[in-house]
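We emphasize that the prediction below concerns an isolated chain of 302 residues; any contacts that depend on oligomerization or on bound cofactors are therefore not represented. The input was used exactly as deposited, without trimming of termini.
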Amino acid sequence: MITLFKLLLEFSWARKMKKIIIFLFFCISITNLFSRSLVEIIDSNKIIIGIRTSNPPFGLPDSTGIDFDLSAIICEKLGVEAEFVLLKGPKFREIVLENDEVDLVVSSYSVTSEREIRVSFSVPYYNSGSAFMILADNLNIHSYKDLDGQKITTTIGSTGEQRIRTLLPKAIVLAKISTDLTYTILNLGLVSAIINDITFLKYQAFISNGRYKVLDGKFGSEDIAIGVNKNYPILLEEINCIIKELRSIQNKDEKSRLRIILEKYGLILTVDEIEKYYSKEEAEKKIRKLEKEIEELKKWLE
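Result of the prediction step, given as a token string:
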């Protein structure tokens, strides 16, 4: 960089703009001072990961979940330790990447065209969509269409917030900073429904012992991936290689490492789990649905 600076000053026009050039080189130097390349991450033996603990099954309060397991594998592959930065909500994901506060965001990060302007995304490790969830004892709501004109909650900066305004233009949106708050105000009866990632909602309904009901219908198709600062293409490529390896299957009789993680957190319920939690009739229906979902997932993983 010093050599380039000296060469520029050989030109007469550059000498006239000496102060501006010095300032620009100073800014570039400062930027490089705070940026962390893949080599620097490995040399420091630490990778800084933005993550959440309020979006089960991806992030749970006890610092477990799909995103924590995925982060552990990334660290294993890179040979480094993880330093986690807990994010207060989804709207902070772009901010911490752009400000170089973290190296990666592993936080059920759905890929959208708006977000791709600001950050880079890895290849996806899951595909999902949005859905609505209500209290199971609410007998007045049978379809998402019944929610138009009613109060619905979601998290600030989520894709669900945008989707409400498209699907239900008359609905009153109460956007909260954290997912936990959305469940609280639903439980208190202050809203009629939550819109969020269908994976989050199905997990909550599954562990709620019948308290919640997810309405039929999945809206949109959203790839969930890892966020990386746009300035670090080599780091992005390394993360892509790791995820592709996790998705790969060596032979037809084995499961990919990624699928094992998804099953671990009930994203794909095993037959044993279904029979444990549901009546025989309900279990038979869910097992048939499970078989269909597994076939769809296999196609997606190929």
